[in-house]
Amino acid sequence: MSQFKFTAGPWNVHEGADAFGPGVRPTIPFEEKVKKFAEIGLSGVQFHDDDAVPDMNNMT
User: Fold this and answer.
1) Containing domain of residue 48, as a range?
2) Would residue 2 count as lying in a domain?
3) Which of 17, 19, 48, 56 is most open to solvent, judged by the fewest CB atoms within 10 Å of its CB?
4) Residue 1, in any domain of the structure
5) Can 48 be counted among the known catalytic residues?
6) Residue 46 · residue 9 · CB < 8 Å
7) What's the structural domain count of the chain?
8) For 22-49, what is each residue's pLDDT tens digit?
9) 51 or 35, which is more confident?
């Protein structure tokens, strides 16, 4: 696997809610998601632009 690097966004591990119904799993804290990502060998965590720069829409 060292030839390829894999990442995931914390939003990929969510409560399972969608347009058809509410969540079906308990919330997993962000810190636990990052620990699990490391355990399974992911090399990074993805963020949305507004996660990395809070209040970005007010910066012009």
Assistant:
1) 7-58
2) no
3) 19
4) no
5) yes
6) yes
7) 1
8) 999 999 999 999 999 999 999 999 987 7
9) 35
